[in-house]
Amino acid sequence: MQQTGYYGTGRRKDATARVWISEGTGEMTVNGKPLVDYLPRETLSQIVRQPFEATDTVGRFNVRAYAKGGGPSGQAGALRHGIAKALVEFDEALRGVLRRHGYLTRDPRVKERKHAGFRRARRGKQFSKR
């Protein structure tokens, strides 16, 4: 039996994306919506497409993804990570290109926790001279 789809899990900040790619026309859906409707900012859509552009596979795969957690920026990064991992599952030879561009590395930067005596992680209380 031939495998029809390839899977990758992507993560960034507090966002997680489950991504399936299958050979097709380049159609992308995230949480049941087209990519341009789900991520209306053009920069975020470009981030999601980067693995395809790096590997010259634009328009060759359909993407079905489910993203949860975090905000739009984190979800876009998670989608990019998931697509890159799915492309490696499709063809191991693409690993070098994707690794060079940094798409296979999970971005470790997350929000710093709030500290005692501060309003946020590093934002102190407002000083009043009088």
State the main characteristics.
4 helices; single chain; 5 strands; elongated; alpha+beta; 33% helix
Largest sheet properties: 5 strands, mixed
**Spatial gap, N to C terminus:** 77 Å
Query: What strand line-up does the widest sheet have?
Result: 1-2-5-3-4
C-alpha-based Rg, rounded: 18 Å
**The CATH top-level class label:** Alpha Beta
Distinct helical segment count: 4
Low-confidence stretches: none
The CATH topology name reads: Ribosomal Protein S5, domain 2
Which class of secondary structure composition applies to the elements? alpha+beta
- Which CATH-level-2 architecture? 2-Layer Sandwich
Task: List the quaternary state of the chains.
Answer: single chain
Q: Estimate what percentage of residues fall within beta strands.
A: 15-25%
Number of domains: 1
